[in-house]
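Sample entry (116 residues):
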Amino acid sequence: MVLRTGGYWEFPKGKQEKGETDGETALRELKEETNLKGELSTEHPISLKYSFSRNGVKVDKQVKFFMCEVGLKSKVSIEKKEVTDYIWLPVEDIEQKATYPQVKEAAREACKRLSV
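Predicted structure, serialized as tokens:
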């Protein structure tokens, strides 16, 4: 998990660039924010839709989280513009650390998929 400059814990994520698949976006954002290279462990992301208000305007958002494997000896190097810290956690502890409900929901779904 990464700690955003705004003070909230979540997973690496970001906007899709033109021509990228969802999986390519996930791997690029992981690399940009943590310097980790990963391999998607499934083609089926955890897909969540939610709404929030920003400056009095309703924003509808859809996020796709992919489960990913990284090497045990991989070294994290965070991207300081967006991320201030990181933490490795057992999957069953992610829900407690996550700041936002949608990240907690993604953690619960990941636990189900891993039968944890």
